[in-house]
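Shall we go through a protein fold together, starting from nothing but its sequence? Label the sequence line and the structure token line clearly, so we can match residues to local backbone shapes. Would you write everything just below, so we can both look at the same thing?
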Amino acid sequence: MIVLSLLAGVAAVGFGARWLGEQASVATSGVVVASRDIELGSVLNASMLQVATWPSGSMPSGAINDVKALESRVVKTTVMRGEPVLETKLAPVGTKGGLSAVISAGKRAITVRVNEVVGVAGFALPGNYVDVMVNTQDEKDKPISKIVLEKILVLAVAQEAGRDETKPKVVNAVTLEVGPEQAEKLDLARSVGTLSLVLRNQVDTVGTPTVGVRKADLLSLRESAPVVADAKPASKPAPRRAPKAKAKAVQRVDKDKVEVIRGVQRSNAEI
């Protein structure tokens, strides 16, 4: 048993030494990673970054190995602790910090007021996509609900633009990223009716044109011919009662007189 234990120990040491040798032979490089969670729009400084050892064979594209090269750069997306700070996650050189740094080229940011329900119960978080629906009156002053914008990126909720939130947050304002024409349409929509947000799948890019829903569509009303009640068979006229016959004169013969009775009147006539 002692001999077997010694052999097992020697084998374990040998395998460990071999593994350490293989690890030492792997080429590594330094890469700048986040030393803490960094919110989008933040201006980078040395306290947010650190250099970590990274295998050269799996170096991510756009990695940076010098902390000083990232001084005053602005991140356009949330970077989690330990995550490499890549060039694709940075705004162009010279960009100032804040929400404007994360707006895509050719896009605009517009804020709309929402409530607990309209804001999709707090689930419309930064980084999500929503459709914008308006409830208003049509040309005939009849109520209509219509989706006016599809796949709109949520940039911020209230004054927060962090995209790593996992819990719903009830807010009173949502900032959306739209194109110039979309901004005009959204501004008109909020002035003529009530806006609602419809949360959609992140990877769903297919548009669905709609014609809107009116009250008649909602209640499934359709014009139809008036319903005619079943005709009842004509009732036979009630039989007319024959007029009461006048009381016939009753004659009673007396010896020398005849008494004539007509109703309640009586008269005598001599023979």
